[in-house]
Write a structure and sequence with these properties.
Elements: E1 6-12, H1 24-31, E2 48-52, H2 58-68, E3 84-90, H3 99-114, E4 118-124, E5 131-136, H4 152-159, H5 165-191, H6 198-201, H7 205-258, H8 260-289, H9 291-358
Antiparallel strand pairs: 1-3, 2-4, 3-5, 4-5
Helix pairs in contact: 3-5, 4-5
Pfam family, one: Mob_Pre
Keywords: Coiled coil
Organism: Vibrio qingdaonensis
Length: about 350
């Protein structure tokens, strides 16, 4: 069972009204399960704050803003003026809907709808139907403080140009229907809930069951379309990124092609290299036909090369030995020449000495 959507808004002032409507202090204490403030709950449980502040802090914030505010005539806000907006979003206890998705979509709806004015969201699981309480406080804007800022019905009623209670009341109702439609578009339809209940539509049980099944099927189809849309969006992003890269490369290539150096030098070089490449490819094709013979010749060549290297090494050793011997011979010859010069010198001296003596 999926059930139908339920979202409701109320406004609260700083004091209990003459008709007995609770003050904003009472309503936040009830939400936080303060002792003696929730007699309708059999076994109160501590609620979970899903967003924002502890609701018990909000009355002081709202009151402080209202005390600073003034109307167009410079007057203070009335004592019975609404200061705090409170709402409830509920899901049937017997529903088989995705509860986590319900909470996620509901919080997203509240954040989009109230933006910075959304002050708190609290989850209750200790009553018959699980539900979410949310609270919003008007801003202190340009010295003004008005519930019309965050309540669609009050805003439409204040902006209604027609005179008379009926026209303003109709404007209020139309705005609240629009609010419900917005919630259905963003939350109810996403999880398979119907916009209205069977009593409001005056449906039989069979018709109600059929409408629920249709809503659930619509939700499943919507989820599938959303999933496919995400895939398409992801693919589109990839395509866009690739297009940008290609465009960037085209720009770079265009800039290169426009360069004078590339046009005059690189094109000629490219043509030359292409000719060389073509010739090399032809030569490679020719060599491929004789691959086996070339492999054999290559093997013989390697063996011959090894042999030549061995012989070269042997010849080098012999050459080194001969060079060493020649160096020894050259050294010996130099020694002999030096000895011969020394002997001739001694003979010359002895001859000179004997001739001198004879005189």
């Amino acid at each position: 069972m999926s059930g139908y959507q339920f979202i409701h808004l109320e406004t609260y002032s700083n004091h209990t009204s003459k008709s007995g409507k609770a003050s904003m202090h009472s309503i936040v204490n009830e939400a936080m399960r303060v002792d003696d403030c929730c007699p309708h709950v059999f076994q109160p449980q501590t609620p979970e704050i899903l967003f924002g502040l502890d609701p018990r802090k909000l009355p002081d914030i709202a009151l402080a803003r209202s005390l600073k505010a003034r109307d167009k005539q410079g007057r203070r806000i009335r004592n019975d003026a609404p200061l705090l907006l409170a709402g409830v979003i509920s899901i049937p206890a017997e529903s088989d809907l995705d509860f986590k998705k319900f909470l996620s979509l509901s919080l997203a709806f509240l954040k989009r709808t109230y933006s910075k004015n959304l002050a708190s969201a609290v989850l209750h699981l200790d009553e018959e139907h699980p539900h979410l309480h949310f609270y919003a406080v008007p801003s202190l804007k340009d010295g003004g403080f008005s519930m019309a800022e965050i309540h669609p019905g009050i805003r439409a009623r204040n902006e209604c140009q027609g005179k008379g209670y009926s026209k303003k009341a109709n404007a209020y109702k139309q705005a609240m229907r629009g609010y419900q439609d917005s919630f259905y578009a963003q939350v109810g339809s996403e999880i398979g809930m119907t916009r209205l209940g069977p009593k409001v539509q005056r449906l039989t049980r069979k018709q109600w069951k059929a409408q629920q099944a249709q809503a659930k099927a619509f939700s499943a189809k919507h989820s599938e379309l959303t999933r496919k849309q995400r895939i398409i969006s992801k693919a589109q992003k990839f395509i866009d990124t690739t297009k940008k890269e290609i465009q960037q490369r085209e720009i770079e290539l265009t800039q290169i092609e426009k360069a004078v150096f590339f046009q005059n030098k690189e094109k000629k070089k490219n043509a030359y290299l292409r000719k060389r490449l073509s010739a090399a490819e032809k030569e490679l094709a020719h060599l491929a036909e004789h691959a086996e013979g070339l492999e054999l010749k290559n093997s013989n060549f390697l063996q011959e090369l090894k042999k030549l290297r061995r012989n070269n090494k042997s010849y080098q050793q012999k050459f080194d030995a001969m060079a060493y011997k020649l160096s020894l011979k050259d050294e010996y010859i130099l020694q002999l020449k030096q000895k011969l010069r020394d002997n001739n010198y001694e003979k010359a001296n002895s001859t000179y000495a004997s001739n001198s003596y004879s005189y």
